[in-house]
Amino acid sequence: MHRTLKLLIALFTLAVGARAALAQGPNMSLTPPSPDPRVGLRAGLFDAAEATWNMHVVSSTQPSEKFKGVTNSDLAFKGQYVIQGNYNGYQVWDVTNPAAPSLKIGYLCPASQSDVSVYGNLLFVSGEGTGGRLDCGAEGVHDSVSAERLRGIRIFDITDITSPRYIANVQTCRGSHTHTVVPDLKDPANVSGQAGVRSPTELAGCSRLTPDKDPNSALFRIEVIQVPLAHPEQAHIVSSPRIFDSLTAPPTHAEAPQDIAAAAQAAAEARAKGGFTASINGLEFVLPPRFIQPMLDSVVKARNGTGAPTAADSTALRGAIQGIVDQLVGNTPTEPGHPKPGPDQCHDITVYPAVGLAGGACAGYGLLLDISDVAHPRRIGAVSDSNFSYWHSATFNNDGTKLLFSDEWGGGGQPKCRATDRPEWGADAIFTLDQGAMHFHSYYKMLAPQTPFENCVAHNGSLIPIPGRDVMVQSWYQGGVSVFDWTDASHPREIAFFDRGPVDSTKMVGAGSWSAYWYNGYIYSSEIARGLDVLELQPSAWLSQNEIDAAKTVHLDYLNVQSQPKLVWPASFALARAYLDQLERSNGLAAAKINAARTALKRAEPQSGRRRSSTLNALAAQLDRDGAGAGDAAKVRMVADVVRTLAKG
């Protein structure tokens, strides 16, 4: 759901349900299953029916008691631990045995949305909502202005991960929806929230005025937080780059007609019962009591009253509520003759230090940033798209030549994968990069129609280290988990999936995969309502066992997906065989030559010393000759290079 931040080391700001497993063994058909088994799955919280294709469920673990019924959010990884954010704090799972994750600690510290990242022995947790307390208390904060409120970044020492120490926090004007940790080789941190700007009475220096009226405005900027590793308690904001300068309001699309009509009807019914509504981007929303009650309490306090709000208090708030919501979502009116400004915050920034770039998913735009100076990111490219509603997250391919943006149409709480929803809305957009320019190629969307009672739209995902290909796993809330290949930027293709039925078949209940990330051989999915899922890919016509085995040779000591690591494959027999499988799939080398190379590898693997080196060197020389006339000479050279490295022992 809506998110952004930054560390300047650099910090940018069990119940197993009934499973309808489609493929018990390798599925060698190039045709996806028809009919799609994801359609019509039985509903249930912990007993919903499940469908898989080319992957299987290793384990499903329910939340611990303090976190049941509360939204699970993003994931970070350290050693054998998966750290799972939750609106009540975070849980640490030991996944030494992925088939049976064990809880090491559930740390109660409420504050939406508890986005998590790790670096060394430090854990960073985002706090954005107005109810988070500095002392991690569960009673919340009810005053509109309070010295007890936490909106920003919490910092924990997790040297002993079973006994974390809360050592510092950094308060920001807009809180932290998400954050991105960026190690700075020169000076090791960065944060940007997207909630409304807090009162300067609560945090000095917070201004809601636009930059033309106040150069210190908290709008239209991100925050960079420096975290000195030797003294993390001294973390502080070091810069507030205005990466949105000169951007105007992007083109967008209206909501689907049936959604507009349904929202209007629900709003009318709510108003008739005394509820509060407000319009956001042309759609009327019913505002929840948890949002309204603190404001009513403030109205009572402002008139020096006591007790429950009166009818007059409700009337006063009702007249002001649209303006309050406009301010919170940045929907402010413009002066005549002035274009409506573009985004004033990012949801997510994915940095790729290995190539010196970052991708900013910034509400109405996808931004390309130069992060060679981590404390002062600089915008070098911007794209907009009328098919996109809310640019949510970004992912680079491994060589940094492509950039994928996701669109969280509907904010993550609405059903946007129905049969009537356009496939280019709430999807991914794939761009190639050329000297700072982004060139659009195609959209990708999980295409299995979901019910009106399943929140579904593109959300968080990561690369899977399949050598020589761009393969990604991605969450789609109650649309499940989808694995797709986007090596051909113009023709992405789904190659595996996992899905459950809705929580309830009669009404909307939020759930589904918030994040689905690959980490050291497995896919970990943070299920909003159901806990933690561990998934594993199975071989298929689209993905060989050798490719999966080669992916498993990539080992990471820790992972924050929004700080994208460069994937490097050690030379291995699995890697050589994976490239040969790809040559066979693409007809990039004659079948007889592929078979001869496989035979030589099989002969060399049990050998040792000079005998193995001799066999492998002979194979490398043969591949050099074979590559001259091959359909994919570059891939043949890759096989030869791996074989030559193996020959050196």
Explain what the structure shows:
It is a single chain. This protein is of the alpha+beta class. 18% of the residues lie in helices and 29% in strands. It contains 8 helices and 34 strands. A 6-stranded mixed sheet has the order 2-3-30-29-28-27, with no helix packed on it. Strands 1-13-14-15-16 form a 5-stranded antiparallel sheet, with no helix packed on it. A hairpin with a 4-residue loop joins strand 19 (348-352) and strand 20. Helix 5 runs antiparallel to helix 6. Residues 2-24 and 187-192 have low confidence and may be disordered.
Our Rg estimate from Cα atoms comes to 26 Å
Measured as a percent range, the helix fraction is 10-25%
How would a textbook summarize the main sheet? 6 strands, mixed
How far apart, in Å, are the first and last alpha carbons? Answer: 48 Å
Structural class, please? Answer: alpha+beta
Strand order across the largest sheet:
2-3-30-29-28-27
**Tally of DSSP β-strands:** 34
Number of helices: 8
Parts with pLDDT < 50 across at least 5 consecutive residues: 2-24, 187-192
Q: What is the typical, i.e. mean, pLDDT?
A: 92
